[in-house]
Each structure stands twice: as structure tokens, then as C-alpha cells.
Amino acid sequence: MFFSRFADFEPLSESERALVDKVRTIMLNVPQIGCTSCRYCTPGCPMHISIPDIFRAVNTLNLYGDHFRPRAFYGGLIGQGYGKASDCIGCGQCESVCPQHLPIIELLKDAGAKLDA
Predict the structure, then answer these.
(1) Is the model's pLDDT at 1 over the cut of 60?
(2) What is the mean pLDDT of the chain?
(3) Bigger pLDDT: 40 or 8?
């Protein structure tokens, strides 16, 4: 016997579409760093900064406004011997290998202002 999950498919109603559009707009307006955590930036960092993890903490802070969780995560990174965001010396090694072409140096400055305070 053939079972189809789409046998009773009904498209979204106009009110459901409007709700999806509203949520999409809200989510797209939350400032996020578009880091994919490829980690190409980390092996050559002379300051041993775990850049993707710092960006994850910033994204969590931006998305949820929860100050404890991202700061605790960030503190754990520092406790493991990784450099702070504000330790960045601006050498540019990370930016030269970033497939997303992120302005990592500037983003680390912003992260340091948020997380090192």
C-alpha cells in the first residue's frame, strides 16, 4: 500500500502567509555575523583567537539579548587559552582566507566592545 504524506496537502492561507512573512522580516532584521564556522581563519591567528566561536557568542547576544549565556561561553573560551576578541592585532591573516569575505578585524573590535566589557 502506498502512503503519501501529501495526499491531503493544502497550501498556506493568506493569513498564514502573512504570519510567515512577518516572522521572516523579524528574523532577517536581527543583526547576525554571517560566519559559517569553516575555521579557515583560526590556524594562522597569531593571537590564538577562536574567531568563529566569538562570532557565535555575538550572534547569540544579538538574537536573544541574553547577556549571561554568551558571556559565559566567551569566558570559557578565554579560560581554555584562546585569545580575547580585543587581542586582535589586525594582521589580516584571517580576512585573507575567509570564504565569506567578512571584515573580521572590524567584527572582532565590535565583539570586544560587547564581550570584553
Answers:
(1) no
(2) 93
(3) 40
**What's the farthest any 2 CA atoms get from each other in the chain?**
65
Alpha helices (H) in 2-81, listed in sequence order: 14-28, 51-64, 68-79
Placement of cell 597569531 in the chain: 46
pLDDT value of position 59:
95
Q: What is the mean pLDDT of residues 34-48?
A: 96
Contacts of 31 (CB under 8 A, 6+ apart): 62
**How far apart (Å, rounded) are the C-alpha atoms in residues 40 and 21?**
35
3-class DSSP string for 76-117: HHHHCCCECHHHCCCCCHHHHHCCCCCCHHHHHHHHHHHHCC
Residue 22 corresponds to which cell in the numbers above? Answer: 512577518
